[in-house]
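Notes from hallway chat w/ T.B., transcribed later so I don't forget. T.B. wanted the structure written out for a chain they're using in a teaching module, and asked if we could keep both sequence and structure tokens in one place. Agreed to drop them here.
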Amino acid sequence: MYRIDSMYEPMVEALLSARSESRADRWMACVAFWLGRQQIYNVPDYWLALAAKITSGLDVADKDTILDQLSNKEAALVSAAGDWPEMPSSLQAVVAGWSPEPIPVDLYAYAATKRYAVETGGVVIDGMRVMTDRQSQSLITGAYNYVQANPEVTVKFKTAAGFVELTAAQMTAIANAVGAHVQASFAAEGEVDKQIIAGTITTTTEIDAFAWPANTAA
């Protein structure tokens, strides 16, 4: 965007916007003549030609009022006005720079970020909210291995709400549920990637709307 302490840049934007809508008002003519006289963006000929074209299409009263304030050279431009002047490429570049194209989003990277958020966002198992961040996954795997080797023991397990005591069977069920959640998260990302390749997913909104695994009841 242009700087807000510049006077002529908003004038240019308003003038060109009105021109794109095929409008021809007296304020546009006045602005264009001023821009030409000030040689804004070093394209005075374009501004004066644009001003002349706009003025030539005004009603008699407005046209005469403007002509009374023009030099002989400027008035001659009005009399000779023909087609709309073509905007110089240098001016097009300036205007385009005010609203640059947004940087394209890497949909694959966005999908990976979404998968990670889902994968590590936790699940609810038998009423317990179980954390599934990478460290918690490792601890759950360790606890699972422990109860497999010692099926008669109970283990202390920390949920999001605090500590609980679990049997080997309960710990195994949690490990299986967390493993299934993690695998479902990666499977969902893989399907999203396929749809990106196929062109059926083209936006981040569509990635968010995909049927990702829930971080609630499992």
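Follow-up for T.B.: The beta strands are 123-125, 128-130, 154-159, 162-167. Might be a good example for the class.
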